């Protein structure tokens, strides 16, 4: 399984939004800038996450996106599937016509174990598990301050 670029961007955007104040919409352009993601592609990804019920979008002046899903209840599997559709780890397990050797293939047994383990990890890992413990100015996204909409670094752990 290769994580698609869209799923990567979507997860990064959700991590960014999970750190922002829920009452204040974060503009698409701000998320794209901080996460270094093309705004046009990010817009499509965020709309898929709105349709899945993870985000709410606000139009117009002061508009943007807010997180509505609880990060502790939002699995990585659910996010990836909302963006990319059903998760397929190995094509031969999803489509028996993919491989002519499927009948009696012992490799398939091992691939099925790997797939179950990967799905289990993605299902049991929540967005909250991916939030930074502390920030680094060069890496961690900034959150939007409620007062002025300016980036405010996250507090560092002590």
**Shape field:** elongated
Across the major sheet, the strand order is: 1-2
Give the low-pLDDT segments. 136-158
Helix content: 40-55%
Total individual domains: 1
Concise synopsis of the structure shown:
With 158 residues, this protein is mainly alpha-helical.
How would you describe what is shown here?
With 158 residues, the chain is mainly alpha-helical. The protein has one domain: Winged helix-like DNA-binding domain superfamily/Winged helix DNA-binding domain (Arc Repressor Mutant, subunit A). Helix content is 42%, strand content 8%. A two-stranded antiparallel sheet has the order 1-2. A two-stranded antiparallel sheet has the order 3-4. Helix 1 packs across helix 3 and helix 1 crosses helix 4. The longest helix is centred in the last third of the chain and has 19 residues. The protein is elongated and about 60 Å long.
